[in-house]
Amino acid sequence: MITRITALAALLLCAPLAAAEIRLTDATGHELVLPGPAQRIVSLAPHITEVLFAAGAGDKVVGVVAYSDYPEAARRLPQVGSYTKVDLEAVAALRPDLVVGWVSGNPPANLDKLRALGIPVFVSEARNLADVATSLETVGRLAGTEAVAHAAAESFRARRAALAARYGARPTVRMFYQIWDRPLMTINGTHVISDAIRLCGGENVFAGLGPLAATIGVEAVLAADPEAIVASGMGEERPEWLEQWRNWPNLTAAATGNLFFIPPQLIQRHTPRLLDGAEQLCVHLEQARARREAAPR
Predict the structure, then answer these.
(1) In contact, 100 and 73? CB cutoff 8 Å
(2) Does 148 lie in the same domain as 24?
(3) In terms of residue numbers, what domain contains 120?
(4) What are the pLDDT digits (tens) for 66-110?
(5) CATH assignment at residue 114
(6) What's the pLDDT tens digit per position in 153-207?
(7) Is position 164 within any domain?
């Protein structure tokens, strides 16, 4: 009898454990239920692709959208359109067991159509730096890579805390963050970039605007008279239009030379690299403070 029990116990120990059900509510309030960790994931935003890789789930990503260019391995994956115009047929052809979308970028109708096809969809949105760490842990849970994801999240939190300790209490620098030139666009105070601005001891002069990303006029910038202007442009090169602010020599940012550039992939994507952009921003605002202190009184 004991031998039979021992044999049965050994058999149970050797048998594969059933995957635990995963139940999570996404940023839009939809509840997602997966029978186990996702094995075939389609990402509907470049920053989501990057977060998936950072969370240890890169080998489970089978499809991405245009501009998913980091890490290098993401460039070789099949593309399913852009984040604003998803090719639903291309997504379905990849037979995903999970699609991860973006609240601010993916049209809700596209996400609803994917759900109607029976494809599980989880939608995320980072509104502050803490949300980036949470996103890492969330996708790690969805993909079954919790250990890697948790380590990445903790590393992000530690680095954020170090930047806050170094720069958060420095004298405030009023600044304008410029997304684009034509039309002239900026971000409001609830955008994740504004959280990076606060981390560096900066103040977004357009924090009170309603939309996350808003179109404004040159007159509004001149009236706000920021001490620094930070722009991101489209790529690695400093945009020519940043220098156009020198046409208004009475503008404090122009008069002091506080016209700074940060590559958009470092500051505009909700990924661990956002802290690379934040660190550059903190250094720029320190330069603005130094110029203020050096100015003749």
Answers:
(1) no
(2) yes
(3) 18-154
(4) 999 999 999 999 999 999 999 999 999 999 999 999 998 899 999
(5) 3.40.50.1980
(6) 999 999 999 999 999 899 999 999 999 998 999 999 999 999 999 999 999 999 9
(7) no
Give domain status of residue 260, yes or no. Answer: yes
Which pLDDT does position 240 carry in this prediction? 86
Q: Are 101 and 41 in contact (CB under 8 A)?
A: no
The rounded distance, in Å, linking the Cα atoms of 186 and 261 is 14
Q: Is residue 2 part of a domain?
A: no
- CA–CA gap between residue 199 and residue 159 (Å, rounded): 11
DSSP per-residue string spanning 108-134: HHHHHHHHHTT--EEEE---SHHHHHH
pLDDT per residue as tens digits for the range 18-56: 468 999 999 999 999 999 999 999 999 999 999 999 999
pLDDT, position 19: 60
Residues 116 and 234 in one domain: no
Q: Is the pLDDT of residue 11 over 90?
A: no
Q: 282 and 177, same structural domain?
A: yes
Residue 12 has pLDDT above 50, yes or no: no
Mean pLDDT taken over the chain: 91
User: Looking at the DSSP assignment, which residues form a beta bridge with residue 100?
Assistant: 43, 122
